[in-house]
Amino acid sequence: MPFTSYSGPASNFPPKHTWKHFEEIFNINKPEMLQTGDSANDVGRIWNAVNEAAKKHGVEERIIFCIIMQESTGNVGVGTTTNQDHHGTAGLMQCMESLGFPGQHNLTQPQITSMVMAGTEHYKGNLKQEGDKDTADCIYKALRLYNSGSINEGNLSDGKGATNSYVSDIANRLQGKTR
Questions:
Q1: Which sequence ranges form a coiled-coil region, renumbered to this chain (predicted)?
Q2: Which DSSP string do the residues of the chain spell out, in sequence order?
């Protein structure tokens, strides 16, 4: 199913009751993760890391996982990139606070967990900035902050120099759609 383009305020994005369950989203995306060169063990360790980070930071598993898919397609060996402020971002969640393992696969559980913990902690800071509520409205705004560091509440597809479609893409992923 193709991605739908969402824009405008958070109220224009899909409500939580349209989101798939974590296990379903994860299973839909397994083939895409395996195509990156990830081993079955890497994929299993991503599952473990997402669950551990969700429990530790109080962030929904499906949000963490959809950020992973958006940022790295679940590729544990994803390269380090530079954001619009010229800061290096690394790891599964392409986070400034994360270590990366470019080109490597068959990583250990601690290596994968460290990447997911760093990204989840960064996202949680954005969620706190938006009221730390488990509502679609707060989540979508926190996603915009995660990607661009700033927010136009009237249009979450205004990337302010970052990826305009970021929040829309994750909204689609939460509904079980893939690229």
A1: none
A2: -PPPP--SSGGGSPPGGGSPPHHHHHHHHHHHHHHTT--HHHHHHHHHHHHHHHHHHT--HHHHHHHHHHHHTT-TTPPPEE-TTS-EEBTTTTBTT----TT--S--HHHHHHHHHHHHHHHHHHHHHTT--SSHHHHHHHHHHHHHSS--TT-TT--TTS-TTHHHHHHHHHTT---
